[in-house]
Amino acid sequence: MRCRQGWPGNRVYGVCVRNKPDRETGGDGHKNNRSKRMTNETWGQVREELIKRVGKNNYTTWIEPLRLSHLKNGVASFEVPTTFFGDWVSRNFADHIRGELAVAGSPVERVEFTVGAVSDRAPAARPAARAAKTARARLDGVDEVTGAQLEQRFTFDNFVVGKPNELAHAAARRVAEGGPVTFNPLFLYGGVGLGKTHLMHAIAHELKFSRPDLHVLYLSAEQFMYRFVQALRDRQIMDFKELFRSVDVLMVDDVQFIAGKDSTQEEFFHTFNALVDQNKQIVISADRAPGEIKDLEERIRSRLQCGLVVDLHPTDYELRLGILQAKLEHYSNQYRGLTMAPGVLEFLAHRITTNVRVLEGALMRLFAFASLVGREINLDLVQECLSDILRSSEKRLTIEEIQRKVAEHYNVRLSDMIGPKRLRTIARPRQVAMYLSKQMTSRSLPEIGRRFGGRDHTTIMHGVRKIEELMAADGQLADDVQLLKRLLQS
Ligand code: ADP
Ligand code: MG
């Protein structure tokens, strides 16, 4: 038994190939040869018919490569290049094959597939090897055209876990175990640069090692659309459908992108349903909750909400510091000899609150700059080198500003925002302000609670959830919140 790591170039799954001894060796009798010839003739006829049944493309990719090894005792047995290939043909074309065999006068009860020898020593198996190549080109097409390259450093090991992302991390870990599907889809959402893509790649990396038998496909929603449009143009929509329905784990990043793009949404919805029906895991990310994505069809929205919806909260100080410390280790190896004064990391973690990408960029710039000018990294250097980043993070939105804008918008008194009144006309705007504070600042729930008249963090959480729920059901409220967000961002 020889193990190959899948088809070369396909990064996601691997297949074990069992080498069969050459069957043509030794003295087969005449009888054997004759029955072989009969078998091949039958198969030749059947193949002709199958072209009509499954179409030229499917035929070339999946049927032509099959080698009929025997046809007896009610079983048609084929050699296939890989396990995946066999599974695919079995799932999609076994009935067609049986049907046509019956028409040709060789009915069978079962069609089975064994992984044959695909090596230079077995000339008989060459067509299969060629077919594997064809299929690979097609599958690679998905990987290549969609640019589904995985970033090497986006692993679980490199992901720093803190309060704001622990739930998302735990859910991603669960999916990465590759066990039975417990929630579908996993919907990860959060602002830019908070680690959504990192977590999705980490799932793919993990599965690639622990479950090489699974076909994991990661791509952005934009790439999904691109593929779809291309398939439409090339009239290969059936191939497109088949390819996407053949994956075991589908991950689509930044799904908000397809909002408003009707036919892509439609296709996505069908792909999504087909995979869920087959109990295949789906992981989706977006920059906001399903209910907040505008121009997303209602049925898609509600399906997206069926699984586990988890958000990546804005980072808090501890998480930012943790990430910086992890990165520091990395850079210290890269830039040996550079020193860093105490307090620099703490300063950065305190001041750069926008997102992790900016934080990482800042640290990288510091190291590059320091090594260029040959200086120690201290607070002076930070001021010099990062003045633009520091300036932009000074314009940080405060909870007070949010409360003021929301009060203005709903025509309630600012004092009522933090006061105890429970009247709905006041409580609802207050909850909107809570929601926006959670979304738009890096304050933690207890901190927000303190600024809402010393309310408990569970009250804030309840308020945030309430608004999330209401926005999904109430377009007017969703519009209000979007408008307020824009006003506050400007
Ligand atoms: P998103 O997809 O949510 O916009 P990314 O996953 O691209 O964000 O993350 C942006 C950058 O921040 C990446 O370089 C990623 O490695 C890094 N990052 C985000 N969160 C973490 C974390 N918890 N630990 C380590 N790095 C992180
Ligand atoms: Mg991303």
TrEMBL record:
Segments of this protein annotated with the region Disordered: 18-39
SMART domains according to UniProt: AAA, Bac_DnaA_C
Region: Domain I, interacts with DnaA modulators, residue numbers: 1-125
Residue ranges with Basic and acidic residues bias: 19-31
Single GO MF annotation: ATP binding
Main location (coarse class): cytoplasm
Protein keywords: ATP-binding, Cytoplasm, DNA replication, DNA-binding, Lipid-binding, Nucleotide-binding
Keyword ATP-binding on entry: yes
Chain sites annotated for binding ATP: 193, 195-197
Subcellular location: Cytoplasm
NCBIfam families according to UniProt: DnaA
Record text about domains: Domain I is involved in oligomerization and binding regulators, domain II is flexibile and of varying length in different bacteria, domain III forms the AAA+ region, while domain IV binds dsDNA.
Sequence similarity: Belongs to the DnaA family.
Subunit (UniProt): Oligomerizes as a right-handed, spiral filament on DNA at oriC.
Function noted in UniProt: Plays an essential role in the initiation and regulation of chromosomal replication. ATP-DnaA binds to the origin of replication (oriC) to initiate formation of the DNA replication initiation complex once per cell cycle. Binds the DnaA box (a 9 base pair repeat at the origin) and separates the double-stranded (ds)DNA. Forms a right-handed helical filament on oriC DNA; dsDNA binds to the exterior of the filament while single-stranded (ss)DNA is stabiized in the filament's interior.
The protein, known as: Chromosomal replication initiator protein DnaA
Organism: Pseudotabrizicola alkalilacus
